[in-house]
Amino acid sequence: MQLAVLMTNTDESEFAQRHPKDGEKFADLVHLVRPEWQVTSFSVKDDVFPDDIDAFDGVMITGSPASVHDTDPWVARLLDLIREIYAARIPMFGACYGHQAIALALGGTVEANPAGWVFGVAHSEVCKQVAWMSQLPSPFAQYAAHVEAVTGLPDGAEILSVSEACAITGFHIENKVFTTQNHPEMSHAFMSALIEEYAPKLPVGVGDAARASMLVKADTQTYGQSIARFFETHKT
């Protein structure tokens, strides 16, 4: 399996330089469950895009502090590429920003999350069972860091999971699209560091709630298996 990771993370701070880039994080997640798969990263936020997306069996789109409504040229180019990938029936997985970008590109809506910031460990209930998620518990835990959310789905999309703080934490379109609003690629150590970095910049109480949530660890490996089975389902 050959996967392309489209990196959208615009954070170039000192904090970001002390930690692995998202391409490495997603490759590590894939290799945790499918060590033989090949993963190639493209920093699309720096306008580095694949020359031939058809060379890949699947695409993963990362998270970012950027907004899908930003007017930077790379954002428009990414949305166009998402539509191209979808038309070519190449399976796409999107996390956080990727989840929102896929929704927006295909006709959905993204707005400020009505419940505000979701930060730390978030628990989602599975509301529709699909084959590749059959081993995922309900509720399942993921690391989260977002203040925008998908509020309307593209045509043909179905909600996969929900939470108290976010009405759509995942959706799918047949076996072509699979998304999560959260961050399956983040480690417990990285999320803990992210909380300490961002807590002083966020509304009062958000950081303390995020710290308290970290008593629980995310279902990283099980969710990673779901991602792998999604790509495998498309191949069968």
TrEMBL record:
The keyword Hydrolase applies. Its EC number is 3.4.-.-. Residues 53-188 form the Glutamine amidotransferase domain. The keyword Hydrolase applies. GO terms for molecular function: hydrolase activity. One of its GO terms (cellular component) is cytosol. It is an enzyme of class 3 (hydrolase). Keywords: Hydrolase. Pfam families: GATase. This is Gamma-glutamyl-L-1-hydroxyisopropylamide hydrolase. The lineage of its organism: Bacteria, Pseudomonadati, Pseudomonadota, Alphaproteobacteria, Rhodobacterales.
